[in-house]
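Quick illustration for those who missed Monday's session on complexes.
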Amino acid sequence: MQKPTALAIRTTLIKSPAHPFSSPRISRTLRSAAILVAATSTLTAFGATEYGNRWQRHRNTQTATTTTTTATPTPTTTTTTTPTTTTTATPTTTTTATTTATASANNYYVATTGSDSNPGTQAAPFRTIKKAASVVKPGTTVHVAPGTYAETITTTVNGTASARIRYVSDTKWGAKIVPASTAESMWKADGGYTDIDGFQVDGSGSSTATIGMRLTGGNSSIKNSWVHHVGVNAQCNSNGGAGMLADQGRGQTFSNYDFTGNTVHDVGGSCGWFHGIYHSSTGTVKNNMVYASGQGINMGHDSHNVKVVNNTIFGNANYGIWYGGCTEAYTSSNCPISGHEVHNNIIYDNGGGIQGPIASEDGSNSFKNNLVYRNTRNFDLSPNSLNQVSSMPSVDPQFTNYIRTGGGNYHLKSTSPAIDKGLATNAPLIDLDGTPRPRGAAVDIGAYEY
Ligand SMILES: [Ca+2]
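Prediction with calcium ion bound:
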């Protein structure tokens, strides 16, 4: 083995808190377990063990500590329109499938005034999302009325490509999920072809819920949701956590997850084992705002071909965007960190900017038109990846009212250098407010189009 350089050692230490699956033996065992367990539909029990093991080998490099961030919890878009029936939000296959499903769907309704002995109609709704999830079929839409739902939700029924299952908060952020048990995940979507749209998840009432929403069934999405204060009371250790998480990657049974239009903040305090959005498979991360968390957007485990586009990421204790995961469990020949497209993102005022692996990285990841500014280190990338960087000058993006801990206004000022400087390729067709994109001469950088 080549003797590591000082730079390699330094970077390994920096990335290690977020770095999963260091052992090939553990990883292979977990892969086998994943396939077996998925086949028997008992992923719930599998989740905690797998997730915990990911970080086990890196405990010795952990340096951050847990703190409780006291950010203002209400983002600027609270009063915007209901996203649930708008199918133009995501220019991916998800949108098309959702439209098809809606046209042929049966519908169930859930409200805090309902009862699980009701038939689940609009006139006589269920009381719990859990009850609705037990009766859905491919093509079903579950409409959830505003109110607080103290539930630990596991959804297991699979939709299909042409008949997705949708869980919709009929008022954006109006249906609020709060912890009801000591479960690791507050909402775990094990069924595939599932869309979760417009919910609020508030984990502040639990010290054991370390994942807000988790997708494991493949071909699924979380859209337009607000996940906050997850893991802020948890121990900062290698068990880690995330506001939103997509599991199952290369060589495993399921893939293709989309995170679009979400606001995620206060996940894990300053703990480097916690992530706003953690993606370990294929898919997209677009139009999200992620802040005041341990890390911002993390593509670990077996992530590859993830399109991370038009996100606004600020004020996270560690990296804004981190990618990698295979560098120790695999060699570059069987698990290159490949095909990531990190474009049009604002990465501002984080502990680090964009960081990736030194080895096992084939130069196919691209980092274009990102505005990376005022991070402790803006770029911490391998030579292969640095060759793929085409970024804006490192200048102030000029938010309307920047507050590091949240509660500011993260739209662009008219003089912002981010305006009209994004790439059109893979850019979402609307912005985080639902405004059509592009507006003006070209796509802007960040989650909001000026
Ligand atoms: Ca524009």
